Amino acid sequence: MALNQVAFIGLGRMGVPMAANLLRAGIAVRGFDLAPNAGPELETLGTFTRAASAVEAARGSDLVILMLPDSKVVDALLWQGAPALAQALDPGALVVDMSSSDPMHSRDNAARLADLGLGFLDAPVSGGVKRAVDGSLSIMVGGEAAGFERATAVLQAMGKTIIHVGSAGAGHAVKALNNYVSASGLIAVSEALVAAEAFGIAPQLVNKVFNASTGKNNTTEHKVENFMLSGRYDSGFALSLMRKDVQTAADFITGMQTPNEFVQKCLAVATAAEQGLEPGADHTAVHKWVRRK
Ligand code: NAD
Questions:
Q1: Is residue 192 helix, strand or coil?
Q2: Of the residues 106, 134, 167, the one at which a domain ends
Q3: Minimal CA–CA distance to 128: which of 222, 256, 228?
């Protein structure tokens, strides 16, 4: 099916570069964000129209992308309001929730939308702002094969590795688990660097060793030098979002009744760091918080 019109709701740190890549791929985008002037650069790229509301953006769109903070916001947008977004969609439209939402909510949303004759995919992303900008995000997708096929060209404009991982909610489950594993690495590296520094070892050298050894991970490779030791703490991924993702993973793992001791510990540290840092702190500032302690 040809996609004539994509609605993009949530033009934040990730949404703007993702929508920009759709426009560069020749896909017409009708965008909406609560911040009325979000992503002014989109106006200069391809066929971009700014809508006055989410419902206005979605009306007449074949595919509606959501790139919002969390499930609470997604659910409110879909089901609350007069009309709610779900009621305003054309029959057969496909909702693609690319936010890092809760898998259980996504499963419910898929079922409720199906009752209205609407499609749903959960298609969260990994790679951060940098890979959103260069269109190389990793995208994990849950939902029916037909919807996946229909959305593939659009997803390819934003991501490089696109994997259909299962039924509705599976994408969001994998995303939460990925971010839990990533957050564990970030916390472990922060504690290790601060302990090494206390012993008198230069943290730059410690990270150099990690990157040449088995301690290497995404934090050591991409975050330590750029955002932690530089003192910038501005990677573009908020600590509040990381904590939310670990909470989602903890809820998911607990719900599956599989061992959850480590995820609960990770959640406790992420929550304490969020409470101990300034509002809006970047997730890499966990290092600053550990150091201050
Ligand atoms: P962000 O806070 O920069 O953007 C969210 C945007 O949603 C904001 O512009 C906000 O105004 C808008 N918004 C909130 N409620 C709205 C509503 N009801 N209607 C319309 N717009 C609304 O967040 P982000 O960093 O772009 O992250 C978005 C999602 O992607 C989150 O779920 C996050 O966990 C996930 N994510 C972020 C990153 C990253 O590196 N920043 C990486 C992967 C995944």
A1: helix
A2: 167
A3: 222
Protein residues with CB under 6 Å of any ligand 1 atom:
9-15, 32-35, 38, 54, 67-70, 73, 77, 99-100, 125-126, 128-129, 236-237, 241
Catalytic residues: 175
Mutate to test the pocket of ligand 1, among 67, 218, 227 (most ligand atoms within 8 A of CB): 67
| Final residue before a domain boundary, out of 144, 167, 190 | 167
| Residue 245 alpha carbon, nearest atom of ligand 1 | 34
Give the model's pLDDT for residue 223. Answer: 98
Q: For 153-166, how does the pLDDT look when each residue is reduced to its tens digit (9 = 90+)?
A: 999 999 999 999 99
| Whole-number CA gyration radius for the chain | 20
Domain tally, the chain? 2
Residue range 204-234, pLDDT digits in tens: 999 999 999 999 999 999 999 999 999 999 9
Q: Cα 45 from chain centroid? A: 23
